[in-house]
Design goal:
The chain has about 525 residues and is α/β, with parallel strands linked by helices. It has 4 domains: about 280 residues, Alpha-Beta Barrel (TIM Barrel); about 30 residues, no CATH class; about 55 residues, no CATH class; about 120 residues, Double Stranded RNA Binding Domain (2-Layer Sandwich), CATH 3.30.160. It contains 18 helices and 18 strands. The strands form 5 sheets. The chain has an 8-stranded parallel β-barrel with strand order 2-3-4-5-6-7-8-9, surrounded by 9 helices. Strand 7, helix 8 and strand 8 form a beta-alpha-beta unit. The protein is globular, with a radius of gyration of 24 Å. The structure holds 3-methyl-2-oxobutanoic acid (KIV) and zinc ion. 3-methyl-2-oxobutanoic acid binds next to strand 6 and strand 7.
């Protein structure tokens, strides 16, 4: 039997972004969308247009730039959200409106305070209205896996009659178990008379660590032909189904799944690195496919086996998913043209010549201090450049710090606050603590530090350090990321970037918490 296609629907920019601290700027979202297009993702869910004016503008910009993937916006099942999604998607070559409403007894009663009949009617009318803007409409019964089967059949049959072309069976709270989830989907498709008029999709959360297994059961048992997923499994709580794991499972076990994919797997690792760098969510070393150890055969026995015959311990090839040995790509003598060309090869499009110049100046500065510049360094410096936008309240200028065995570390920092340079000093338990105390002596943010992590961007002690600082204040959580050869400088940049995000009062709606 000829293989059917499995559609890959990426929701890193929507469900992934709902993860506390993962919010991204428009420029960052555009960079990720371009990379997803490069990886040949079929559908990119670019956001939730009604969340905020910023989200609306990001979707609109992505819709205008991306040509090969379908661009989708989420909307709750109401006319205002749907019209807003349609407006943001107007520039798209191919667009999809994804509307949803909760169907489980618990969500209907406690969250929506609606009767099942009201939910049924709202779902039907939402799909009917969305069809006025596009013939590509997706409907999700939120908390589908905890919904009553008879009610689900009634709602889903009605929305397909109204013109929904994709039905996305959501395991919103990660409650599903592979066999049960797959069989629920199978039963829905068998019981709903017009089920063949829609493509069925799976959307799973990872609360019990089964998102990928549930999604694949939905495909194999339930007959789903679309999987919704995120890069690195990013997402609220324990995250979403990881795109890289789905793609490599289906590709590596083609004998079992017998499905084709449009994805260019060699872009998986670059995409994973980009998302991690932008959001500040580090990838655990033992993470399948994209973790630093995923292809490192550390134990003696394995190494010996791999040297004798690769497939003794390797079921995939590192280079097939985009792992390359750290390559020295540029150096101190490289010119602007070579730098610009490498940006293009990495799929990084800077919007203006001014931005290229600023990034090139940073590159020169780095190359003066570091003899070998890798792709990862270039990606980090572009991210850093985008984090430190003009017009942001705080900006790093310089610092000095002193630490000596037996003495309390001290630090002095100069940074801009609202356009004015300020100089502050502080002491702390360590140099990073000292620099944060110095910044806080002026900023007095009152924010709580939830996470401080340092990662080496490449290998060796010459590597730049990439620091993430996660801050919380008044119920808002933000991540700041900074990179530098000096990890105290990287920490200061990350802290200032997090403060900038706290400063930019974003009144963003979470589509599922309202
Ligand atoms: O998890 C969920 O239910 C969702 C829906 C909005 C599809 O993300
Ligand atoms: Zn979700």
């Amino acid at each position: 039997m000829s293989a059917e296609k499995l559609i890959i629907f990426d929701t890193t920019l929507r469900d992934g972004e709902q993860s506390p601290g993962a919010s991204m700027t428009k420029e960052e979202k555009i960079r990720i969308a371009r990379q997803l297009e490069r990886m040949k993702v079929d559908v990119i869910e670019a956001g939730f247009a009604a969340a905020s004016p910023g989200d609306f503008e990001s979707i609109k910009a992505i819709a205008g730039l991306i040509k090969d993937s379908v661009i989708c916006s989420l909307s709750r099942a109401n006319d205002r959200d749907i019209a807003r999604a349609a407006e943001a998607l107007a520039p798209a070559r191919r667009k999809r409106i994804h509307t949803f409403i909760a169907t489980s007894p618990l969500h209907m009663e406690k969250k929506l305070r609606m009767t099942p009949d009201q939910v049924f009617e709202q779902a039907r009318l939402a799909v009917r209205y969305a069809r006025q803007f596009t013939d590509d409409v997706e409907f999700s019964p939120e908390d589908g896996s905890r919904s009553d089967m008879d009610f689900l059949c009634r709602v889903l049959e009605a929305v397909i009659t109204e013109g929904a072309t994709t039905i996305n069976f959501a395991d919103t709270v990660g409650y599903g178990v592979p066999e049960l989830y797959g069989n629920m989907l199978k039963s829905l498709r068998e019981r709903i008379p017009n089920s063949d008029k829609a493509i069925w999709s799976v959307h799973c959360h990872n609360d019990l660590g089964m998102a990928v297994a549930n999604s694949l059961a939905g495909v194999m048992i339930g007959g789903a032909r679309q999987v919704e997923c995120t890069i690195n499994g990013l997402g609220e709580r324990a995250g979403n189904t990881a795109l890289e794991e789905i793609v490599m499972a289906v590709r590596t076990r083609r004998d079992h799944f017998n499905l084709t994919l449009g994805i260019d797997a060699s872009q998986i690792v670059p995409t994973s690195k980009l998302v991690s760098q932008i959001t500040g969510f580090a990838v655990q070393p033992n993470k399948a496919v994209v973790g630093a150890n995923a292809f490192a055969h550390a134990s003696g026995i394995h190494q010996d086996g791999v040297l004798k015959a690769r497939d003794t311990y390797e079921i995939m090839r590192a280079e097939d998913v985009g792992w390359t040995a750290n390559k020295i790509v540029l150096g101190k003598l490289s010119g602007r043209n070579a730098f610009k060309q490498r940006l293009e090869e990495l799929g990084i499009t800077l919007e203006s010549e001014g931005e290229v110049n600023a990034a090139f100046a940073r590159f020169k500065e780095l190359a003066d201090r570091k003899s070998e510049i890798f792709d990862e360094d270039i990606m980090a410096l572009v991210s850093d450049e985008q984090h430190s936008h003009e017009g942001e309240h705080y900006g790093f200028v310089s610092l000095s710090q002193h630490s000596e065995t037996g003495e309390r570390p001290s630090a002095k920092i100069i940074f801009t606050a609202g356009g004015k340079e300020v100089s502050c000093s502080g002491q702390g338990n360590g140099p990073v603590d000292a620099i944060v105390n110095a910044i806080e002596s002026n900023a007095a943010s009152g924010a709580e530090l939830l996470l401080f992590s340092v990662n080496a961007i490449t290998t060796g002690t010459q590597s730049q350090g990439e620091v993430t600082m996660r801050l919380a204040k008044s119920g808002r959580i933000v991540n700041g990321v900074g990179s530098d050869l000096d990890i105290v400088v990287a920490s200061a940049k990350a802290y200032l970037s997090a403060l900038n995000k706290l400063y930019s009062k974003s009144d963003k709606l979470n589509p599922q918490q309202v």
